[in-house]
Amino acid sequence: MKVPCTGRVDIILILKAIENGADGVYLVGCLEGDCHFLTGNLKARKRVEYAKQLLDESGIGGGRVEMYNLSAAEGQRFAEAAREMTEKIRALGPNPAKQQGPRGQGAKRTALEPSNP
Amino acid sequence: MSTGSNLERVLKSGVFAVTSECGPPRGADPEAVKKKGAFLKGYVDAVNVTDNQTSVVRMSSLSASLILKEMGFDPVMQMVCRDRNRIAIQSDILGAAALGISNLLCLSGDHQSFGDHPSAKNVFDIDSIQLIRTVKRMRDEGKFISGEEVKGRPDIFIGCAENPFADPFEIRAMRLAKKAAAGAQFVQTQCVFNVEKFGKWMEMVRDLGVHEKMYILAGITPLKSIGMARYMKTSVPGMDVPEEMIDRLKSASEGKAADEGIRICVELIEKVRAIKGVAGIHIMAIEWEQKVRDIVEAAGLYPRPAINRL
Amino acid sequence: MIVANRKPFEEIMDMLKPYAKILLLGCNECVTVCSAGGAKEVSVLASEIRLSRAKDGIPVEVKEHTLERQCDPEYATEAKPLVDECDAVLSMACGCGVQSVAEAYRSKYVIPAVNTTFMGSSEEQGVWKERCQGCGNCILDRTLGICPVSRCAKSIFNGPCGGSQGGMCEIDKELPCAWQLIVDRLKEMDMMEKYLEIQPVKDWSTSRDGGPRKRIREDLRI
């Protein structure tokens, strides 16, 4: 799913990614103060903080979602962020909501399926 | 028309009045009240009994007032609006009068979030000014809030409190005027450390003519220690403690801060006594009641007048 | 609008323990406006419930649906096909909605997912504050639009009390003293003499103190 700015990432997208088996989610937005859409990345950071809270309380762990800020020109930093995130998630282990064996029906739904039956 | 109150007699006679207070204990032992009373006997014209002060459960002010009355004191029973509705309030007013308690101090009350039972429901059925009016109506017109007849009117000298240091400053004199209009006959102020600000407030009060409608007693609290001074400055709502007072305590020699505190206290008494319209002082020496006699003597206010009832 | 807060997650999961098929019901009105129980919040909570149960290896099916509002029987009954299939209904509506749904589905266990707190207004995006207590006898004309019942911690009618400091209430340094606000407004409108008027005691019988209330319009009854 393509978005024009991290500001368009809704909290539900982060949660759905985790629900669908992602071990971690990271947002990479423009440097603070440099957002193409002025405040999109600031809103994204607030949502990431909130998502961390929700993942902590549901027992999954808020450490599995992170936000990084860098400019489009910082290829090196991008690679660093990717490595950092991977190491972090590796240390945390697989997503505890991923089940071996029978799963509840709800976990099978993907992020794009309509939620109203 | 006078009540049976000794405090009223003293104030009417023009003598500079002295009152103090006793906080009831956190238990059912009457000896705790008698012990505090013993420190004050002979040194005050009346003694206030607090009503679950700071929203902390204590023996009721009505019962502690009776214990002190039996010791020969003229109690000023404090009543807050936080815990009782108008039914209980009017009932307690009748009860107090029946037991011969002649003075009632009408207060709003600290919010229960400050105390030991913050989950309690807060009542605030009526406010302090409506309470003043209620007592006056019961006494002078023989009517309850409902308009029905009071069979046996309560004989009560009505008091209130005011804080010259709270905000908004510009309406604090107007609020006192409102209380006088409602029927308050005497006021005890929050403790004064900033005499200059108190003087300004008294000026506004005199401009409204309130000093001629009610007797004004300035609150006085002796500072025991630097810690206490700091605590009052920063943690007690509506308190104004000038920095210079804390400095004086700091510069006192080792172990002599308390003595300096008493000296400051006596100086404050002399200063407020000189302000026109101040009819007395109300000494609040919380958990330091034994010092009241030293203060009263040092301020030249001992012995207290014995004005006999007719 | 009516403002609510979602209950702590642990409390919700505790109430849901015995149930496998849950219908999570949102409401499109007040709880949507204060972002506590609308369609968005429903999808987020549903996701959290699934993640939590998956982590514990306990199966769950959470169906999500948002009604126009839950406090009208016509809307509450709309959800019947979904309610019939579930073991329990978890409602994100305010207390009014939860009760209407419970009444509409008497054989179903209906659980509140939010704590309904107050009637209030939005001060800025994301901030809602208490404004009205439903005392049943509005005196906002006398206090120039600022309610002493709901905005003064002691509901004082002849305020302020002695704890007002720097325009703030004694119980919370960030809570404006309602009486400071009223005095400021009286000054702005050049009506300071109104301050000296003694407000009489309040008749609380029109508020909750008088017992549960109702409103009826006979002309609208069928």
Overview of this structure, please?
The complex is a heterotrimer of chains A (117), B (310) and C (222). Chain A has 117 residues and is mainly alpha-helical. Chain A has helices at 11-19, 40-57, 75-92; strands spanning 25-29, 65-69. Chain A has one domain (6-93). In chain A, 38% of the residues lie in helices and 9% in strands. Chain B has one domain (6-223, 275-298): Alpha-Beta Barrel (TIM Barrel). Chain B is built from eleven helices and eight strands. Chain B has helices at 6-12, 30-40, 61-70, 86-98, 128-141, 172-182, 195-207, 226-235, 243-251, 257-273, 292-298, and strands spanning 17-22, 46-49, 75-80, 103-107, 157-162, 186-191, 215-220, 278-283. The relative contact order of chain B is 0.14. The model of chain B has no long low-confidence stretch (mean pLDDT 93). Chain C folds into two domains: 2-117, Response regulator (Rossmann fold, 3-Layer(aba) Sandwich); 133-206, no CATH class.
Short description:
The complex is a heterotrimer of chains A (117), B (310) and C (222). Chain A is 38% helix and 9% strand.
Secondary structure blueprint with pairings:
The complex is a heterotrimer of chains A (117), B (310) and C (222).
Chain A: H1 11-19, E1 25-29, H2 40-57, E2 65-69, H3 75-92
Parallel strand pairs in A: 1-2
Chain B: H1 6-12, E1 17-22, H2 30-40, E2 46-49, H3 61-70, E3 75-80, H4 86-98, E4 103-107, H5 128-141, E5 157-162, H6 172-182, E6 186-191, H7 195-207, E7 215-220, H8 226-235, H9 243-251, H10 257-273, E8 278-283, H11 292-298
Parallel strand pairs in B: 1-2, 1-8, 2-3, 3-4, 4-5, 5-6, 6-7, 7-8
Helix pairs in contact in B: 6-7, 9-10
Chain C: E1 2-6, H1 9-16, E2 21-27, H2 30-33, H3 39-56, E3 61-67, H4 73-76, H5 80-85, E4 88-91, H6 95-104, E5 109-112, E6 114-124, E7 127-132, H7 148-151, E8 168-169, E9 172-176, H8 178-188
Parallel strand pairs in C: 2-3, 2-4, 4-5
Antiparallel strand pairs in C: 1-6, 6-7, 8-9
Features:
heterotrimer; B: 310 residues; alpha/beta; TIM Barrel; C: 222 residues; Rossmann fold; 2 domains; 4-stranded parallel β-sheet; 3-stranded antiparallel β-sheet; 23% strand
Q: Give the DSSP E fraction of chain C (strand runs of 2 or more residues).
A: 15-25%
Task: Provide the domain count of chain B.
Answer: 1
- Number-wise, the strands of chain C total 9
Distance between the termini of chain B: 13 Å
Helix vs. strand class of chain C:
alpha/beta
Provide mean pLDDT of chain B, rounded.
93
Quaternary status of these chains?
Answer: heterotrimer
The name CATH uses for the topology of chain B is TIM Barrel
CATH architecture of the largest domain in chain C: 3-Layer(aba) Sandwich
Distance between the termini of chain C: 28 Å
Helix content of chain B: 25-40%
CATH class of chain B: Alpha Beta
Order of helices and strands of chain C: EHEHHEHHEHEEEHEEH
Spatially, the strands of the biggest sheet of chain B line up as: 1-2-3-4-5-6-7-8
SSE ordering of chain B:
HEHEHEHEHEHEHEHHHEH
Structural class category of chain B? alpha/beta
Low-confidence stretches of chain B: none
Mean pLDDT of chain C: 95
Sheet-strand content of chain B, in percent, reads 5-15%
Report the count of strand segments of chain B.
8
